[in-house]
Amino acid sequence: MNIGIDKIGFYAPHLYVDMNNLALARNVEPAKFTIGIGQEKMSIAPITQDPVTLAANAALEILDEQDKEKIDFVIFGTESGIDNSKSAGVYVHGLLGLNPHARSVELKQACYGATAAIQMAKGHVALNPESKVLVLASDIARYGLNTSGESTQGAGAVALVISADPKILALEDKSAYLTDDIMDFWRPIYSDKAFVDGKFSNEQYILFFQKVWESYKSKSGLGLADFEAICYHLPYTKMGLKALRTVLEQGTEKDQERLVENYQISTTYNRNVGNIYTGSLYLSLLSLLELNENLQAGSRIGLFSYGSGAVGEFFTGILQPNYREHLHVDYHKQLFDTRTEVSVPEYEEIFEKTLPIDGSTVEFDIDSDPATICLSGMKDNMRLYINKHN
Ligand code: COA
After folding, report:
1. What is the 243 CA–ligand 1 centroid distance (Å)?
2. Mutate to test the pocket of ligand 1, among 32, 115, 203, 304 (most ligand atoms within 8 A of CB)
3. Confidence class of residue 390 from pLDDT cuts 50, 70 and 90?
4. How far is residue 380's CA from residue 378's CA, in Å, rounded to a whole number?
5. Phi, psi (degrees; rounded to nearest 5) at 9
6. Taking the model in full, what pTM does it have?
7. Is 325 considered catalytic here?
8. Hey, what domains does the chain have and what are their CATH numbers?
9. Is the CB of residue 118 less than 8 Å from the CB of residue 56?
10. For 215-256, what is each residue's pLDDT tens digit?
11. Active-site residue, 111 included
C-alpha cells in the first residue's frame, strides 16, 4: 500500500520586513543577508497570530468535509508551542471542527518534529488504511533584535494530510536517521527566544546530512543519479546548499546541474518567508512542487530533516500521477502577492509586543489581520481564538 502526502497547505502572516532594510538598520552589507545567508524577506507574525492560528490557517485551505470526517489523528510538530501541558493539536482540532473521535498531540524535537509526525502518521495509516492524519508544522522563529540569528527568523506553517493512495507524494520505506546529544540550538522553558551556537550548528547540520546520506545509500543501494531533487531543512537558504555541495562530486555533471537547479527552485518560498523551523523542509518541498512545472510523475525526491539538539533523517518520496492538480499554486501566489511590508521600526515594535503573563484581560484588533483564524485576546491566562467564518 502506498502511503504519503495527499494534500499540502501553507500559511504565513501577512506582514514582512525586507532584508535589505534590516541589513541597513543593523549596519550590515545587504549582500550578507541576501547572498551570504540567502534571504530576501522575513515574515513577521502580528500579535493576532501564534503557532496555533498559523497552523489552523494552513490547514483550513486544504481540508474538505470528507477530510474533516476521516482525520482521526492530529499531530502538531512545533518548537514554539504555547502551552507546556495542553497540545497545540487540540486547539487546532477544535478550531477546524474535526471529527471528535480523533487523537490530538504535540511533538517536539526542534525542527525535526514534523518529520517524526509524518513517520508516526505513516505507521498509523499502515495499521488503519481508511484513516487520514493531519500533520501540522508551525513555528515563529525568534532569536531577538540585534542578535546574529536575527536575520534567520520567520513565521509560518505547513499542513499535510497523510493517507493511503496519496495524490502528491508516496513516501518510500527506506530512511536513515541519527541522534546525537549536542548543544547547537536550544530554548530553555523560561525564554521566548532561542539560544544558538551558529557556527557549531552549521557544522553539525552538514555532518548529520553526510552521515544519514551515507547510511541511506548503503541501506537503499541508490545514489544521486536516482534523485530528481533533494529538499533540505532550511533555517536560511544558503544552509542546504552548503550540505548539498559536500556530496555533489558523487554525481555526474548532469546530476549536479539538475540537483543544484532544483535546489534553487526549492528555496524560493523559504527565501521570502524566513525560517519556520519545523515547517521549513516542507515549505521547501512545496516551493519545488509548485514552482517547477517540469517535474515528472515517478520522480524521486529526497528530504533531509534536521532538528538541532540533534536528530536528523533522510527519507524519500515518489511523485504521483497528476500531482499538480492537487496543489494550491494560485492560492499561494496570492498569499505572497498580498502581503504588506513593514519598516524595521514597525517590525521591532511588533517583535516587542507580547501577551500578558499576569492573567489580565486583553482584546486584539482582529480586523487588521486578514487571516481567517486569529488570536483575539487573552483572559484568565487562556488564549482566545476566533474563526471569522464561524
Ligand atoms: N556579501 C556576500 N556574502 C557575505 C557578505 C557580503 N557582503 N558578508 C558576509 N557574507 C557571507 C559570509 O561569507 C558567510 O557565508 P559562508 O557561510 O558561506 O561563509 C555568510 O555571509 C554569513 O556570514 P557570517 O559572518 O558567518 O554570519 P554570522 O556570524 O552573522 O552568522 C549564522 C550567520 C547563520 C550562523 C547566524 O545567523 C545564525 O546563528 N543563525 C541561526 C542558525 C540556525 O538556525 N541554526 C539552527 C538550525 S539548523
Report:
1. 14
2. 32
3. confident
4. 7
5. -130, 165
6. 0.98
7. no
8. 3-168+327-387 (3.40.47.10), 170-323 (3.40.47.10)
9. no
10. 999 999 999 999 999 999 999 999 999 999 999 999 999 999
11. yes
